[in-house]
Design a protein that fits this description.
Layout lengths: L5 H7 L1 H14 L6 H14 L3 E5 L2 H11 L6 E5 L6 H8 L3 E4 L11 H14 L3 E8 L8 H10 L3 E5 L7 E2 L2 E2 L6 E5 L13 E5 L2 H11 L21 H32 L5 E2 L7 E2 L5 E5 L2 H13 L29 H9 E4 L7 H13 L22
Parallel strand pairs: 2-3, 2-4, 4-5, 5-8
Antiparallel strand pairs: 1-9, 6-7, 6-11, 8-9, 10-12, 12-13
Length: 395
């Protein structure tokens, strides 16, 4: 059994993909060819954004977004410690300081309550300029932007929406990533909407930001590539990858619906398993289920469930085994174990099950049956409330 079965999708659209690639090879415009522009237009229409700028990876999409806001040394950018390294890495690459904010115990997305407390603390201390927030729509689920946006507006902060795992999800009737000032996504192959290599995109409704993003993407170019008006990147999207995403986008709405079926089947099959809590989707949101991440009651229960599944040849994964504030690369920020209790507890309890749009009902039943029969017997427990009135010190 595959954790993510990319071959099932490939077989569905193999002829279309091969034809699209052949077209690119025939016209020979491998860098910024016509398929890139077409993909930008179709993606913008799909999510409901005025502008889409294709780029070389989800990481570069984040970096471009922060560069468009001219983030640099002395700036504080708030983000979650419960995410992939790239989210905070790009903040540090620009010389700014990542300031971590704990997550909500039900959704694992950045907590609006904690965000308000940390933003106030950074502003009161005055050591850093409070500039913005990088939210992460984790596991395919949008953050609670209805509560996050007023906090950002109060402190004059931008919101960069990291939707690498959630492109096409829905929050309050609008597709992700259109909730922030700039939204980003990744086309890494394992993402819900992926290519056959690296790729990404940046979205915004602001024409000035869009112009800056297009400039940054190609070495800070002005009216031509030899008239450089700012420092930029080599962050162009390959035409071959754009052609692949164009074909995948045609079936993506159907795949999103298939993902809902798979998630519903999992949730039903695991609803009464002691020691295992399925993921939660709040009212007003629809996840695209980049992962189906369950929570065990403790690390022992998690290990037991994973061992039982492995014995039957069923793979699992842990996202994320260590929160960012405890990584060696961020030791200089001065955080310690215990600073973000919700994220730290999650890292010891969550694990992800095989998930993709083509997972069969009998496979889901098998997986749920193994967990039901495994030694997962601790009672269901929730996270304790985070001490949001006592945030950790700002770096």
């Amino acid at each position: 059994m595959q954790f993510i079965d990319l071959q099932a999708q490939r077989l569905r659209i193999e002829k279309e993909i091969n034809a699209a690639l052949a077209t690119v090879i025939e016209h020979g415009r491998y860098i910024m060819g016509p398929e890139v522009g077409r993909l930008e237009s179709e993606l913008a229409a799909f999510v409901g954004s005025s502008h889409c700028v294709g780029c070389s990876s989800g990481t570069d999409a984040l970096l471009m977004a922060l560069m468009a806001f001219e983030v640099g040394p002395g700036d504080a950018v708030l983000t979650t410690p419960f995410t992939f390294f790239a989210t905070a890495e790009v903040i540090s690459l620009l010389g700014a300081t990542p300031v971590f904010v704990d997550v909500d115990p039900r959704t694992y997305n950045i907590s609006p309550e904690a965000l308000a407390v940390v933003a106030n603390k950074v502003k009161t201390e005055g050591k850093l300029r409070l500039r913005g927030v990088v939210t992460v729509d984790l596991f395919g689920l949008p953050c609670d932007y209805e509560r996050i946006m007023p906090i950002a507006e109060k402190h004059d902060m931008f919101i960069v929406q990291d939707a690498a795992q959630a492109c096409g999800a829905i929050y309050r009737g609008k597709r992700v990533p259109t909730q922030g000032h700039i939204g980003t996504t990744s086309f890494f192959p394992a993402k819900p909407l992926g290519c056959y290599g690296d790729g990404g995109a940046v979205f915004t409704d602001d024409p000035i930001l869009a112009e800056k993003l297009r400039s940054i993407r190609v070495h800070g170019k002005g009216n031509d590539k030899y008239n450089n008006v700012r420092i930029g990147l080599n962050a162009r999207l390959d035409t071959l990858q754009a052609a692949i995403v164009l074909e995948k986008l045609k079936i993506y709405p159907d795949e999103i619906e298939r993902r809902q079926r798979v998630a519903s089947a999992y949730s039903a099959g695991l609803s009464d398993v002691a020691g295992i809590t399925p993921p939660v989707v709040p009212d007003g949101s629809q996840s695209v289920w980049a992962q189906f991440t369950v929570r065990a009651a403790d690390s022992t229960a998690r290990s037991a469930a994973q061992a039982a599944l492995k014995e039957k040849g069923i793979p699992t994964a842990i996202y994320y085994i260590k929160p960012l504030h405890l990584l060696e690369a961020f030791r200089h920020l001065g955080y310690r174990e215990g600073d973000f209790p919700v994220s730290e507890t999650a890292s010891t309890q969550v694990f992800s099950l095989p998930f993709h749009p083509y997972l069969k009902n009998e496979e889901i039943e098998t997986i749920c049956g193994v967990i039901q029969k495994g030694k997962v017997r601790a009672s269901k427990v929730g996270f304790s409330s985070a001490p949001y009135d006592l945030p950790p010190k700002t770096p």
